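Quick start: what a row looks like.
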Amino acid sequence: MQKTRDSRTFLAWLLAALAALALLLGYLHFYGDSWLSSDDSSEMILSRILAGEGGILTENWHYSTELRVLNTQLVWSALFRLSDRWHLVRLAGTAVSLVAMCLCIWLLCRWVGREKYTGWLCTIFLTPICPVYFIIMLFGIYYVPHVSISLLLTALFYRCTKARSRKEYVLLLIPGCVLSFLAGLGGLRQLLIWHAPALLAVALLSLSGGERPQVRRSGGFAAGAFLWAAAGYLVNSRILSGRYHFLSYESIHFTDFDPKRVWQTVIDWMKLYGYRSGGKVFSADLFFNGAFAVTVLLIVCSAIAVLRRKESYGPGERLIVWYYVSALLILLLLYGFSDMEYADRYSIPLTVFGFVVVLLGCTDGADGAKGRAALLVLAVLIGIQGVGFYRTYSGERGGIRDEIVAGESYGSWGRKATSRSLLCR
């Protein structure tokens, strides 16, 4: 009976996720061209060059912020070898990348014992809560690789706390270290959004009374992954930087504490969860901000429940919550005490893990009706936000990227391309 109920729950949420993906891809097919910018065309042009050269890196390109190693160019360049239709390649590449991210979600949910709610989490990840999330995650898919890597590492991180033998632990550690090294080759970002917070999470788990064997295993995994990611970054900054053209992070300096940057980070974090400012109180914004309040309340209550109810949640679940807390704390400290370039989109790979925390908090061992109802309510609220986004930004005006078309992209190969003329082919 329980297995049948779980299968129905899994299927129901899977259908919801498929509907969210179909709606997104349909919107991108009909209206995606209105959102194009020079950044989007640059990614496609880079992938087209790589397809022609037959490699995954090229010296004939000025990368924008970081070297693309384990990134979207792997998908798009492979598709360019099959077709030269830019619009088709972009749409298919987006679908492949998002499905790959959903597979990472499935692995995490399976290992934490929430496999039947895989579709729920996928639905949340595939729904445009706000314009910035849509542009970066669902349209440009810039951070999909980073989020996917973080999901995989978190799954391995959790699983190592339940390793029953040294062999099983090593089999988890090896892919974690390899993945970390490859991520480090691309730059500093993955170190900041996963590896450093993971180390802090282990320390917080230990201080909060975590069991010694689990702390030791998770600490070994976090330290090993961090060292290999750091090794990858050293290769990036000392070797690859001499051959390829990309931004260096070595010019970042410590500064006096800047509360304005911290406050701006908090405000942008709120907006990524759906908060809207500037509208009238008695308008549709009242609903959206109410949905934001429910989302944050569920995240906070779920985090407290997982950390306090040790009889219902194991050290692995608490480790994931501590990772989320640590990631947000490091983000605030980074922008409060350094002059590192800031943009609201930089918080996306961290804020999405708030929904992982909600899933854990609402589905303990008992998996009660209140938890299931909370998940359903949150999914409905976010679904309404997503539908509202599609209705607001449909048509040729292109939403908040109105008139951002025909952007020029340059590579060291000396050609100039126009985003609309290329990507609408």
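That is the whole record. The chain has a mean pLDDT of 88. The radius of gyration is 21 Å.
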